[in-house]
């Protein structure tokens, strides 16, 4: 990690379907000096996803090339040939604008970032009210095949066990309350 990279970051992680993206979008809509870190991935864009806005879509070969170039702060192979990571250049861009980086990353990515940035990072685990509610939310999206839902639920089971390793566990039972609490937590961290 180069010396020029210095600033604070906020990390939101959760199993797929817990509501972390909605909470992060809420925070970005507030005047908190936050800027979203656009992750890189190896998959193809979904309908309505824009390269450079939703993700940096690199493809499998492009992603592997960036790994070789040491271009990532952190990365992982979530499923076979399905990579996600954070580009160093993305964080430098945000910090150079005097803003705080906010991440919407999976659980392992969140823990890796926290380990790397220590006290300069505040890591929040967004927890669904229950495993059953999580499954209901994933099914409610109607964007995933049965296989994908089962794969995500299996992964969620493991991810929920990592919650205690985060700075704060935010239970997303009622979205409005979760957003309000997330705002308070972020403000307290930024003032500290």
Chain-wise SSE layout:
Elements: E1 9-13, H1 20-28, E2 34-36, E3 40-41, E4 56-57, H2 59-68, E5 72-79, E6 82-87, H3 88-96, E7 100-105, H4 107-117, E8 121-127, H5 131-141, H6 146-160, E9 168-171, H7 175-191
Parallel strand pairs: 1-7, 1-8, 2-7, 3-4, 8-9
Antiparallel strand pairs: 3-6, 5-6
Give a written overview of the molecule.
The model has no long low-confidence stretch (mean pLDDT 91). The strands form 2 sheets. A 5-stranded parallel β-sheet has the order 2-7-1-8-9, sandwiched between helices. Strand 5 and strand 6 (82-87) form a beta hairpin. The protein has a single domain, classed as P-loop containing nucleotide triphosphate hydrolases (Rossmann fold, 3-Layer(aba) Sandwich). It has helices at 20-28, 59-68, 88-96, 107-117, 131-141, 146-160, 175-191; strands at 9-13, 34-36, 40-41, 56-57, 72-79, 82-87, 100-105, 121-127, 168-171. It is α/β, with parallel strands linked by helices and 192 residues long.
List its salient traits.
single chain; 192 residues; alpha/beta; Rossmann fold; five-stranded parallel sheet; four-stranded mixed sheet; 7 helices; 22% strand
Helix content: 40-55%
Overall mean confidence score, pLDDT: 91
CATH T-level topology: Rossmann fold
Level-2 CATH architecture: 3-Layer(aba) Sandwich
Number of domains: 1
Please summarize what this structure is.
This protein is of the alpha/beta class and 192 residues long.
